[in-house]
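Standup notes, protein team

Yesterday: finished cleaning the candidate division TA06 bacterium DG_78 set.
Today: Probable glycine dehydrogenase (decarboxylating) subunit 1 structure.
Blockers: none.

Input for Probable glycine dehydrogenase (decarboxylating) subunit 1:
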Amino acid sequence: MHYLPLTPQDEQEILKKLGVSSFQELLDAIIPKELQHHQKIQLPPAVSEHEIRNILKQLAGKNLTSTDHITFLGAGIYDHYIPSIVDTIISRSEFYTAYTPYQAEVSQGTLQSIFEYQTVICELTGMDVANASMYDGGSALAEACHMANDITGKAKVILSELIHPFYQQVVKTYTQECCVELVQCPSKNGLTDLNALKDLLDNETSCICIQHPNFYGFLEAMPDIEKMVHDRGALLVSVVDPLSLGVVKPPGEYNADIVVGEGQAMGIPQSFGGPLLGIFAAKMDYVRKLPGRIVGETTDIDGKRGYVLTLQTREQHIRREKATSNICTNEALCALSSLIYLCSLGKQGMVDVANLCVSKSHYLYDKIKELKHIKPAYEQEFFKEFIVETEKPTHEVIDKLLEYKIFGGVPLSMFDEKLKHYMLIAVTEKRSKEEIDTYIDSLAKIL
């Protein structure tokens, strides 16, 4: 990166052009004085570039990473293997500097990659149509609720209690000024309570939102839920872990109407919790109600294949009252990462990764059942994640595990203070038998 210094002379020339004598005068013109809070920043003395690099390396070295630690963290962000081809391809300048493809004639490469991303998402979910991606799983779910209300003309949304708490907060924020009635369906034994759901369903319900696998990692009874929902004329919104679809029946096969999910597990690093990728797919009947943008395939005047943005039902493009969303962009580079990931694995590779997650997580689950002072909280079918109960508060257990260089899990007390003895454990295909055994041995010593 080039360093462009600004000298005092440059600053004076800029201020002169702006017609002010000082930077403070510029601030006074645009910010009311009562909103200006001046506080001196206690910066250390200036040092050379070489010295600052060393300081930054020391600071970065304080981070605990999955390179140095064995990680069993989950709750929406997972430590899956990313093939080297993913970073190699997205690091090409034509991809990572690509601008939003408003001008189709100069954006064919970007449009084609998005079109192919949409295609693989449809194949993965068993749905008819997918959009060019959303910001993340939470915003995708919120948009799905708006879409369902628009389709049905109703305003009651039922959220399973076992949808990710952060997703529920996003939905609450999105809908709080839109005359939407949000109702939470309680859970029972780690699954959505179907009797409670039946009682909550009425003729004013627009959609039921179910996470499958749910936040605790367990598999919901989607065929039973689907029948219950559609019998009352509501829509079924399924929140999925895309990697689970290597072994779990895709939502298209149990007649889901809208499918959303978080795509981070497909070739996107954990980083510090972002950027992420919101997956969004639906039945073709609802294609004109989809939020965001969709890329379509067409032919030009010479009969050559080409790609265009189409069905952009956003307030930027059509009359505001007809807009279905205010989502103004998509996570194109993250979507490309997931596309490359899925293409490099192929259909059998997806099945293999999913099976490894199942077998390794169940191996750990069975080993935990042999320990004292810790036990699985529920006996339910799960994919790669499950909840355990400990006699000690889980934050104490997790802190102790750090001494063994293990990220032991996510304490559920961070979502609900009443769950201070529960934690969520995720096991991906990256965890070896030796690592899992080390985790078990460490737990035994701590407990």
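Follow-up from PR in the comments: The mean pLDDT is 93.
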